[in-house]
Amino acid sequence: MISFSKIKTNPSYLNVDCDEVKINKGDKVAIIGANGSGKTSLINAITGLIKSENDITKEITNSEIGYLMQKVSLPNDLFVRELLELVLIDNKNVGDENVDKLLNKKVKVLSGGELQYLMLYLITSLDKEIYFFDELTTGLDSSKRKYVLDNLINKKLETFCLVTHYVEEAIKVCNKILIMNEGNVVLYGEISELLEKKEMNYKITRNGETMYFKTIEDAKKEELESDLISKCDLKDLLSVCGVDCE
To answer: What is the pLDDT of residues 5-62, one digit of tens each?
Structure first.
C-alpha cells in the first residue's frame, strides 16, 4: 500500500535512510517517539503536505488517505450539525449516540474529548483506504483518552497509522510499531519480532541496571531467583533505542 526507504526534507526535519518500510493493507502501525522526533513530519512527507526528496511508493492516491491532524481549526460559532452538513452528504441519521448528543452544541463549547471524538467520527465516515491519526489523545486526561481510544478500536478500521508518544496506546491499538528518534526511523515491525531480533526477550533489573537475554535459560544463568526475571516489552525496545516516551 505504502512503502519508503529514504525521505529528506529541507529544512532538515527528517533525514530518513533505513531498510524499506512497508505499510500493508491490514496493518495498524503506531508511529512512536519523543516530542520533536519527526513523527508528524514523516506523515506530512508521506501525504505530500511538505516537500521532500524521497523514495516513497504509494499504491493509492492521496484522495484515498484520511488524515486527522493534531491541531484542527474550526469556526467557533459553528454548530456540530452544521459541521456535519458541510463534511458529510447525508447526516440525517448519524447512527452514533455520542455524536447525536452534540448536534445542537457549538464547536466552541465542546470539551477536548468531545472534539476529538467528533473529528474521529467525521474522518472515518469518509471511507478511506488508510488513515493517519496524529497525536489523537494529546492533551486529554486519562478518562478522555480511554474514551477516544475505545472509539477508535470500535471503528474496526482495517489500515491506519497512529502517531503517539504513549506506550500504552501503541500496545492497545496497534499490531506494528515504527520507532522514531531525531528525525530517523530506528525500528519497524511487530513488537515480538523486534524483541527477537534484538535478542531481548527477557530481562533482569538490578541496582537500576537492566540486562537483556534471548532465552529464559540465559537469564537463569545470571539470576537464580526466577521472580526477578521478567519478559521484555515495548518500553524496553524504546529504552535501548534511546527514546523516552510515557
So the answer is: 889 887 777 888 888 999 999 999 999 988 888 899 999 999 989 888 888 999 999 9
Q: How many domains does the chain have?
A: 2
3-state DSSP call for residue 196?
helix
Strand, coil or helix: 165: coil
Q: Report CA torsion sign: 46, 47, 50, 52.
A: positive
80 located within any domain: yes
Q: Is residue 97 helix, strand or coil?
A: helix
* In the predicted structure, residue 78 carries a pLDDT above the cut 60: yes
Q: Per-residue pLDDT averaged across 151-176, rounded?
A: 91
Helices (H), 64-215: 80-87, 97-100, 112-124, 142-155, 167-173, 191-197
C-alpha distances (whole Å) from 138 to each of 41, 71, 118, 148, 162 are 17, 10, 15, 11, 12
The identity of residue 36, as a single letter, is G
The answer as to whether 228 is a domain residue is yes
| E-state strands within 62-114 | 65-68
72, amino acid identity: V
Looking up residue 101, the CATH number of its domain turns out to be 3.40.50.300
The gap between the terminal CA atoms of the chain, to the nearest Å, is 30
Contacts of 181 (CB under 8 A, 6+ apart): 33, 34, 37, 241, 242, 243
Residue type, 217: E
Q: Are residues 202 and 180 in the same domain?
A: no
* pLDDT tens-digit readout, 95-120: 778 888 899 999 999 988 888 889 98
Name the pairing type of β-strands 202-206 and 209-213. antiparallel
